[in-house]
Automatic annotation (TrEMBL), chain A:
<dbReference type="Pfam" id="PF02322">
    <property type="entry name" value="Cyt_bd_oxida_II"/>
</dbReference>
<keyword id="KW-1003">Cell membrane</keyword>
<dbReference type="GO" id="GO:0019646">
    <property type="term" value="P:aerobic electron transport chain"/>
</dbReference>
<feature type="transmembrane region" description="Helical">
    <location>
        <begin position="114"/>
        <end position="135"/>
    </location>
</feature>
<feature type="transmembrane region" description="Helical">
    <location>
        <begin position="53"/>
        <end position="74"/>
    </location>
</feature>
<feature type="transmembrane region" description="Helical">
    <location>
        <begin position="304"/>
        <end position="327"/>
    </location>
</feature>
<feature type="transmembrane region" description="Helical">
    <location>
        <begin position="80"/>
        <end position="102"/>
    </location>
</feature>
<keyword id="KW-1133">Transmembrane helix</keyword>
<dbReference type="GO" id="GO:0005886">
    <property type="term" value="C:plasma membrane"/>
</dbReference>
From TrEMBL, chain B:
<feature type="transmembrane region" description="Helical">
    <location>
        <begin position="402"/>
        <end position="423"/>
    </location>
</feature>
<dbReference type="GO" id="GO:0009055">
    <property type="term" value="F:electron transfer activity"/>
</dbReference>
<keyword id="KW-0408">Iron</keyword>
<feature type="transmembrane region" description="Helical">
    <location>
        <begin position="15"/>
        <end position="39"/>
    </location>
</feature>
<keyword id="KW-0813">Transport</keyword>
<keyword id="KW-0472">Membrane</keyword>
<feature type="transmembrane region" description="Helical">
    <location>
        <begin position="59"/>
        <end position="80"/>
    </location>
</feature>
<feature type="transmembrane region" description="Helical">
    <location>
        <begin position="215"/>
        <end position="233"/>
    </location>
</feature>
<dbReference type="GO" id="GO:0046872">
    <property type="term" value="F:metal ion binding"/>
</dbReference>
């Protein structure tokens, strides 16, 4: 059952990165869109993600619930030492979620929209930035349970070159996913071109920030290179990702949307695999070499049994419904039925 | 403000904020389903407009409820890491099931909000019902988790270790049923009166009377039935509390001295230092009767409980009085309305009844907040009743007061914006729904 639960944990992080990531990315793209085109970007985005919007963010909650029920020590350690970035991320989630709803459901369209949009776009950037920082700090040996002053315990636990680089990388990935996704959601050529060029820029940014992650890892003594290139899975995944990148650029020229989506999703999946495979099951690496391991720091057997059953049972209900939701709206948008305002 | 107090206040603030949205998220889908049903059956467009107007409001509330709930699931760890480290695996069962319920709710909401004119109409209607049912289920599940904190079960506590854990037993603890029942009714009563009150106001002002009358009636019937059942369920809760948390009951009733033939105290100012209650109205023997159905039964007072285990008496007592007081007023409104419905049709058009409902608009939510204050403050100093103290659970991180100020500012602004948007929504009713023909409304 432990393995079932770990699979669910991994899958919910993965899906959150893909679906939630594309969702954040749409806001980031809007932030970096020239004023004239913003309305169009917004409309495309709303049509594309509106119906599944709420569901995308459930994956984060599932991951958190799995952590606090199944792996309470890991959850509470992260909550204590990463309190500050978690709080910032939460504020980002609040701001983003409410601004998204407000701007579409406000009965009057006036100056308030400017405020909602500004809040929405900025929080779309900040939230994944801090998610990345949190992810970075879990593996960068900066969490220090023996620290005896505020800065070491609660600030330098997450504020490092490496973590910030991971944060920026995450932002670029989100923007990339969104741009690729949105290419397939527009019906006219100029918009398609716009999203294609955005996908390129985001991709270049991701490569630059990726380089920054490696540099930071090297400077701060994090064996990232070893995690990725020190084992067959890592090498295979990173090679696959690089090869598919070439293919992706080629297809971008052609504008083949379905394949593009699959490729982009594939790349992000590969990146997540390489970065999690080598140090599995140690999901938090502490200062001084200590680890918090999924295989050791888990709850009691009965708890895991119950949690696993709940997850399996839940997916029996959820997955078909979710697929049907995505399927029906894909079909209808493709047919170009009604338009929201 | 010290860190411990700040953490408690931040928790209370976040929960107090979330509960408003979750009540609405649990109940409004049912109201919409009724209006929607009438529309599908009768083809009367006013019902369609009511459904659509409500669904816009619900979308706003739902999003706010969802983000504030997400915040809560992190806050449990951010503020009470030591509690979660031990309690997580024990009381986590309802949370893991709740994940499913939320997910289904979110999916069904996607279908419902974006599905106008896209699906078979009864399928579309059904997705709205699913939103309501899964919301209600998730509410019941979270309350079961809270009930576990009041009546811990499903583990043995031996030498400071939590052993023999059984998450299913933990979920079905002694308090879950009475709390869940009371909470569900409270959600219907609070949301019902709030919605009915707003529509009543518009009727009194003679604005779009047809629209508001239909909306009012749906909300008012739910509200009235729930408000009449509420005191009955409250009685079950009180008997239950007397059994498992005598300290909480004593604080609720400001009952300091153990004794027989204990009076029920109404109002009054409890003074913990002198252990007396000033200016209270006493109904002889009634508390004994309510707890044990015997006017002479003994009821434990605070003197039978060690001083360090006393909850704050005054807050708990006042909060309890407020809840019961509001409950009585709402019950009266409910009874009058139902009499009007069955016997005295002309009451329904009369201004005094509508005005009464206008006054009742906020009462349900005041009662909900007060009721949770009773439950949570009355549990102090324990976070897990009799097992772990709240003070031992708090995060070691200093500076929580800043976090509290920040969240206060955020929640305040959100409350202001949501209120403002709701106000606009209501003002726009005429433009959006009443006058324009239905063909204009196919989008939202
Ligand atoms: C519309 C809201 C509302 C109304 C009218 C009432 N209540 Fe209530 N009450 C709640 C809303 C509420 C609540 C907010 O939902 C609580 C908090 C925890 C819970 O389970 O329900 C609660 C808790 C609560 C508790 C504590 C339960 C516990 O700690 O386990 C008791 C003893 C009562 N109530 C009793 C009553 C009585 C005797 C009422 C008579 C009129 C009453 N309530 C009306
Ligand atoms: C939504 C309705 C709820 C409201 C309005 C509410 C209110 C409060 C209040 C006022 C406090 C502070 C008590 C004090 O420190 O004096 C508190 C504390 C707390 N509540 Fe609740 N509560 C609610 C539901 C829940 C639920 C469902 C849970 C858990 C499953 C929960 C968990 C906690 C925890 C962990 C604390 C902090 C520890 C403590 O003070 O005992 N609450 N809540
Ligand atoms: C008595 C207390 C509570 C009740 C009745 C309640 C009920 C609900 C309901 C009905 C929703 C759906 C959102 C909506 O319709 O607006 C919701 C959302 C949520 N609640 Fe609560 N809740 C309570 C307390 C809590 C607590 C203590 C937590 C966390 C520990 C929590 C976590 C969540 C989460 C994560 C969501 C978002 C789910 C989504 O995206 O739909 N809730 N809650």
């Amino acid at each position: 059952m432990l393995y079932v639960i770990i699979c669910f944990l991994w899958a919910s992080i993965w899906l959150y990165l893909l679906l939630g990531g594309a969702d954040f990315g749409a806001g980031i793209l809007e932030l970096f869109t020239s004023k004239g085109n913003r309305d169009k970007t917004r409309d495309t985005m709303y049509q594309a993600i509106g119906p599944v919007w709420e569901a995308n963010h459930m994956w984060l909650i599932i991951a958190i619930v799995i952590l606090f029920v199944g792996f309470p020590v890991i959850y509470s350690t992260m909550s204590v030492y990463l309190h500050i970035p978690l709080t910032v991320m939460l504020l980002g989630i609040i701001a983003r979620g409410t601004a998204f709803a407000f701007r579409h459901y406000d009965a009057v369209v006036d100056d308030m929209q400017v405020l909602y949009n500004r809040i929405f776009t900025w929080s779309s950037l900040i939230t994944p930035l801090f998610l990345g920082i949190i992810a970075g700090s879990t593996v960068s040996s900066t969490i220090n349970p023996d620290a005896n002053n505020f800065l070491d315990a609660y600030v330098f636990s997450w504020l490092s070159f490496f973590s910030v680089a991971v944060g920026l990388f995450t932002v670029a990935i989100c923007a990339f996913l969104a741009a690729i996704y949105l290419i397939g959601e527009t019906n006219n050529d100029t918009d398609k071109k716009r999203f294609i060029s955005k996908a390129r820029i985001a991709n270049i940014a991701a490569v630059i920030f990726g380089g920054m992650v490696f540099t930071a890892a090297w400077k701060e003594g994090i064996p990232l290179v070893d995690w990725i290139f020190g084992n067959a899975v890592g090498i295979a995944a990173i090679t696959a990702a690089s090869l598919s990148l070439v293919l992706l650029w080629y297809l971008l020229l052609k504008g083949k949307t379905k394949v593009l989506r699959i490729l982009a999703g594939f790349q992000v999946t590969m990146i997540l695999i390489t970065t999690t495979f080598k140090h599995f099951p140690n999901i938090v690496i502490l200062k001084g070499g200590g680890h918090l391991s999924l295989m050791e720091h888990h709850g009691h057997d009965k708890t895991l049994q119950a949690l696993g059953m709940a997850l399996l049972l839940g997916s029996l209900f959820i997955l078909p419904a979710l697929f049907y939701l995505i399927y029906s709206f894909q079909k209808k948008t493709a047919a170009g039925t009604d338009h929201h305002h | 403000m010290n860190d411990f107090l700040a953490a408690r206040s931040q928790m209370a603030l976040s929960l107090g904020f979330h509960i408003v949205f979750s009540c609405i998220g649990m109940v409004m889908p049912f109201f919409m389903a009724v209006a929607h049903y009438y529309w599908l059956k009768t083809g009367n467009d006013v019902y369609k407009n009511v459904t659509k107007a409500w669904s816009k409001g619900v979308a706003i509330f739902f999003a706010t409820g969802a983000v504030s709930g997400t915040v809560l699931s992190f806050e449990l760890g951010l503020l009470w890491p030591n509690f979660m480290k031990h309690a997580g695996p024990i009381f986590g069962m309802p949370f893991s099931l709740e994940g499913t319920a939320f997910f289904i709710e979110a999916i069904a909401l996607g279908f419902f909000l974006y599905g106008w004119g896209r699906f078979n109409k009864w399928f579309h209607w059904f997705t709205g019902v699913i939103v309501g049912v899964s919301g209600l289920v998730s509410g019941i599940l979270v309350v079961a988790a809270n009930a576990w904190m009041n009546s811990p079960a499903g583990f043995d506590y031996i030498n400071g270790e939590y052993v023999n854990i059984d998450p299913i037993k933990a979920m079905f603890n002694d308090a879950w049923f009475s709390q869940a029942l009371h909470m569900c009714l409270a959600a219907f009563a609070a949301t019902g009166f709030a919605v009915a009150g707003v529509h009543a106001l518009m009727i009194v002002r003679k604005s779009h009377v047809q629209f508001h009358t239909k909306a009012f009636r749906i909300a008012a019937i739910f509200a009235a039935v729930a408000a009449i059942l509420q005191p009955l369920s409250g009685d079950i809760s009180a008997k239950d509390v007397a059994k498992r948390q005598p300290a909480k009951l004593a604080a609720m009733e400001a009952h300091f001295h153990t004794g027989k033939k204990v009076p029920l105290i109404i109002g009054g100012i409890p003074d913990e230092s002198t252990q007396t209650v000033k200016y209270a109205m006493e109904l002889p023997g009634l508390l004994s009767f309510m707890i044990a159905e015997d006017f002479n039964a003994e009821v434990k007072g605070l003197d039978s409980i060690p001083k360090e285990d006393h909850p704050p008496v005054a807050i708990t007592h006042y909060a309890f009085q407020v809840m019961v007081g509001m409950g009585m007023i709402m019950m009266l409104a409910g009874v009058l309305y139902l009499i009007g419905l069955w016997r005295k049709k002309r009451w329904l058009e009369s201004n005094w009844l509508l005005r009464f409902f206008v006054i009742c608009t906020p009462l349900g939510f005041i009662a909900v907040e007060a009721g949770w204050t009773v439950t949570e403050v009355g549990r102090q100093p324990w976070i897990i009743h009799g097992i772990m103290r709240t003070a031992d659970a708090v995060t070691p991180m200093p500076g929580i007061n800043y976090s509290f100020y920040l969240f206060t500012a955020v929640y305040m602004s959100l409350a202001v914006i949501v209120t403002f948007m709701l106000y606009r929504q209501i003002k726009m009713v005429g433009k959006l729904y009443d006058i324009t023909p239905a063909s204009h409304l196919t989008t939202h």
